[in-house]
């Protein structure tokens, strides 16, 4: 870009020099006819340079505008592709969240079902141990004092496990009904 103040100063100096060389008649004629003054100003090299620069800037601006218009379909196509990819990502995230929630529910359910099965097996084992103790007592393999201590503990453990199984079954029933 041109230094406009420098051009103005240069044009003014050139104009003053040319005006100083004019005769009084030329100056009178020049001041009375605006068309001559206009053409004289337009013929100044500095003004011509500004006009050329103006044309170049307009031409560059026009070329940039045309290039932008040529690129517009590609830009719109890519924008649409980005929007579609964004929507796909949002949908994928939503599906992921749904599947994860479903998996979490399934894992929670499996975990509780597995716990219930293990607890039921442990309760049955404790009940079986108490029956074995009773059988050993009846066959005379263990004494009365030993039988009472071990049988009481075995029945207590079997009963606690049975109560826990029932409570867990109730929790599972309420959870599946909800």
TrEMBL record:
The keyword Protein transport applies. SUPFAM superfamilies: Endosomal sorting complex assembly domain (SSF140111). Keywords: Coiled coil, Endosome, Protein transport, Transport. It is found in: Late endosome membrane. It is a peripheral membrane protein. One of its GO terms (cellular component) is late endosome membrane. Residues 47-136 form a coiled coil. Its main location: membrane. One of its GO terms (biological process) is protein targeting to membrane. Residues 93-178 form the VPS37 C-terminal domain. InterPro entries: ESCRT_assembly_dom, Helix_hairpin_bin_sf, Mod_r. Belongs to the VPS37 family. Component of the ESCRT-I complex, a regulator of vesicular trafficking process. Required for the sorting of endocytic ubiquitinated cargos into multivesicular bodies. May be involved in cell growth and differentiation. This is VPS37 C-terminal domain-containing protein.
């Amino acid at each position: 870009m041109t230094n406009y103040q420098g051009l103005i100063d240069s044009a003014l100096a050139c104009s003053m020099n040319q005006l100083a060389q004019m005769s009084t008649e030329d100056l009178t004629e020049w001041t009375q006819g605006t068309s001559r003054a206009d053409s004289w100003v337009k013929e100044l090299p500095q003004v011509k340079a500004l006009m050329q620069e103006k044309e170049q800037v307009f031409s560059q601006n026009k070329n940039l505008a045309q290039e932008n218009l040529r690129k517009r379909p590609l830009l719109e196509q890519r924008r649409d592709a980005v929007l579609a990819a964004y929507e796909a990502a949002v949908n994928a995230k939503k599906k992921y969240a749904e599947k994860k929630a479903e998996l979490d529910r399934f894992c929670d359910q499996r975990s509780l079902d597995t716990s219930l099965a293990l607890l039921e097996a442990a309760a049955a084992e404790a009940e079986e141990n108490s029956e074995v103790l009773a059988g050993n007592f009846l066959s005379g393999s263990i004494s009365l004092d030993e039988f009472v201590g071990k049988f009481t503990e075995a029945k207590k453990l079997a009963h606690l496990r049975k109560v826990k199984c029932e409570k867990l079954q109730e929790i599972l029933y309420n959870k599946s009904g909800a």
